[in-house]
Amino acid sequence: xxxxxxxxxxxxxxxxxxxxxxxxxxxxxxxxxxxxxxxxxxxxxxxxxxxxxxxxxxxxxxxxxxxxxxxxxxxxxxxxxxxxxxxxxxxxxxxxxxxxxxxxxxxxxxxxxxxxxxxxxxxxxxxxxxxxxxxxxxxxxxxxxxxxxxxxxxxxxxxxxxxxxxxxxxxxxxxxxxxxxxxx
Length: 184
Hints:
- The chain has 184 residues and is α/β, with parallel strands linked by helices.
- Helix content is 22%, strand content 30%.
- The protein contains four helices and eleven strands; from the N terminus they run βαβαβαβββαβββββ.
- It has helices at 13-25, 40-50, 65-72, 100-108; strands at residues 3-6, 30-33, 54-57, 78-80, 84-89, 92-97, 114-116, 124-130, 147-153, 165-170, 175-180.
- It has a six-stranded mixed β-sheet with strand order 4-3-2-1-10-11, with no helix packed on it. Strands 5-6-7-9-8 form a five-stranded mixed β-sheet, covered by helices on one side.
- Strand 2 (30-33), helix 2 (40-50) and strand 3 form a beta-alpha-beta unit.
- Helix 1 (13-25) packs parallel to helix 2 (40-50).
- It is globular and about 45 Å long.
């Protein structure tokens, strides 16, 4: 099962529509939005109409937080998480938020395999190595493994400051792809 991850749409209907058409052709049925939809009407009048699958979203730093939360409740296929969300799909623990600082904090907990974030508009992938802490070692000869958490920014779907991009993630194969909208 593949997942589409978008962020920082900033009400840009043209690039969002092109991306959503491609996502639909791929038969992707789950979308994560890492914040900055901007106007709640982007969700209610556009996104829920153009994407038929589940939509999981968090706040960004732009827009009316109260109104967005209120409008999201009107749609059963939309799950709104506040500042940070989590899902478990295909055995992978997925976290998502808007700000990179919050994504770092989430990754450092060791509770996630991959954490998506937005805000900077710059597509980025990084690996954060987490040393297990607070774990009791019952067998003194057993070494604890260092865990690697993937941090990913899918970029901006609005195409502000950087080209319009989004990510596709397959939790079953752990394959991650960056899609550039103008090349779809």
